[in-house]
Amino acid sequence: MILKDVFENNQKWIQDKLATNDKYFEELGSGQNPDLLYIGCSDSRVTAEDLMGLGPGDVFVHRNIANMVVATDLNAMSVIEYAVKYLEVKHVVVCGHYVCGGVKAAMQSADLGILNPWLRNIRDVYRIHKNELNKIESEDEKYDRLVELNVQEQCVNLMKTAVVQKAFRERGLKVHGWVFDVRTGKLIDLNIDVDSILENVREIYHLD
Ligand code: CO
Asked: From ligand 1's centre to the CA of 1, what distance in Å?
C-alpha cells in the first residue's frame, strides 16, 4: 500500500458511488441518521462498516485499543452522549475481537508506559472474572474468553452511564456485545443479558 493509491482509490470510489446514484454525495451532505453506535477496537483487521456490509451514513463509530468504555475517557463518553442523546441511535454495540493485541498485552507482565493505565482496565476485567479464567487450562482458550468477558464488562460500563440508562428506560435503547473472529471472518453475538446487567448495576450505579 502506498499513499498515492489511496487518492486513486478515492477517485474510483466516487465514480462507483455516482454510477449507482448520481445524488449519492448530495444525500450524504444533507445529514446523518444512523441507527447504530459501534464501539470497536482500533485493530486494522477489524473494519467496522466493512465487516457488517454497511456503508456511509449507517454507523456512528468509536474505536480505541480493545474496545473500552472507560468512564474518565472524555472521547468515548462524548461519542456515547452524542450518539444516544442527539442522534438517538436505536442500538449500541460493543464489538471485541479474538486475537486482540490489547487484551493479550493485559495478560502479560510488562511495563508498557503510557499504555499501562489503559490496559489496567482490562486487568480489572481479569480480576473480576479471575475464578472463571483461572480454571481454563489452555492459554488460547483463556485469551478468547477474556476477549468475551471484556466485551461483557464494557457493556456493563455502558449501562453505568446516565445517558444510556435514560434511553434504555424511555425509548428501549438496545445494548449488544459482539465478537469478531479475525481467524474466520465471523461476527458472533454474545447474547449478553442486558436486562439483568441493568438490574445488577442499578442497585449501585443508578443515576437516572
Ligand atoms: Co484489538
From this structure: 22
Instruction: Judge whether 43 counts as a catalytic residue.
Output: yes
Please give the mean pLDDT across all residues of the chain. Answer: 95
Q: Let me know if 100 is a catalytic residue.
A: yes
Q: Give CA–CA dist 167/85, Å, rounded.
A: 8
Query: How far apart are the CA of 68 and the centre of ligand 1, in A?
Result: 10
Could you confirm whether 41 is annotated as catalytic?
A: yes
What's the pLDDT tens digit per position in 87-145?
Answer: 999 999 999 999 999 999 999 999 999 999 999 999 999 999 999 999 999 999 999 99
Ligand 1 centroid to Cα of residue 96, in Å, is 7
Predicted TM-score (pTM) of this structure: 0.95
Q: Number of structural domains, the chain? A: 1
What is the residue range of 91's domain? Answer: 33-203
The answer to whether residues 61 and 145 touch, using CB atoms and an 8 Å cutoff, is: no
- Is 6 part of a structural domain of the chain? no
